[in-house]
Amino acid sequence: MCCNERMIDREIVLESEGVRLEPLHSRHLSQIARVGNDPALWELTYGANPFTNDADTTRWFADATCTQNTLAFAIFDLHTGEIAGSTRYLDIQPVNRKLEIGYTFLGRRFWRTHVNTECKYLLFTYAFETWGAQRVQLKGEAINVRSRNAMERIGATYEGTLRSFRVKPDTGEIRDTSFYSVIAPEWPRVKAMLEGRIRGSRATG
C-alpha cells in the first residue's frame, strides 16, 4: 500500500544488530529522563533541557506521544541494553510522501558511536522502503556544528540556512536554522554508505 493511503504504523519496532527503536512508552520515561538531563545535550538546540523537573518531563512526554503526525521512539543500545536517547518521525505527510526525522538526542557516552548511524539507517530504511517516502528532512540550529556534522556524516544533503527562522522560546534569541535532506533517488547511495560505515564500526568494535 502506498504511503499516501495510510499513516505510519504506530506499533513498529525497528532493530539492527546494535540498535532497537521502540515506540515511546511511559515505561521508558524514567531512564530517558536520566539520560537526557544533561546540560551539554541542550546547549545549542532550539529547546531547553526538558528533563530538569517532573513537570517538564511530563510535558515533553505528552508532546512526544500526543502530537499529530509524529511518532516518537526510545533508542536502545543493544550492546549495553541501555536506553541511549530518543528520536522522532515528525511532520509526517502521506499525501506529499515526506516526513522529518528530528528531536533526536543521545547521552554523551553514545556520541560518535554506532548508535546514531544505525538509528538513522533504520529510520531511513523504513521511510523509503516500507512507507514509500520521496523526501526525508532533517534540520538543526545553524550554530550547532556538532549536530550539522552528524547530519552530513549520515549522507544528508545540505539545502541551505533560513535566516531568523524561529525564536528560542526560553531566551528569545532569534535563530537561523539549517536544512538537510535525503530524497528517494539518493537513498541507494546513502544506504550503501551507511551500511559500509556500520560494517566498519562492527569490525573495529
**SS strand fraction:** 25-35%
Number of helices: 5
Oligomer: single chain
Strand elements, count = 8
The CATH homologous superfamily is called Gcn5-related N-acetyltransferase (GNAT)
Q: Helix share of residues? A: 25-40%
Remind me, CATH topology?
A: Aminopeptidase
Distance between the termini: 39 Å
Shape: globular
Low-confidence stretches: none
* Largest sheet features: 8 strands, mixed
The radius of gyration computed from the alpha-carbon positions, rounded to a whole number of angstroms, is 16 Å
Mean pLDDT: 93
SSE class? alpha+beta
CATH class identity: Alpha Beta
Summed up, the domain count is 1
Q: What is the name of the CATH architecture?
A: 3-Layer(aba) Sandwich
Question: What is the N-to-C succession of helices and strands?
Answer: EEHHEEEHEHEEH
Main-sheet strand order equals: 1-2-3-4-5-6-8-7
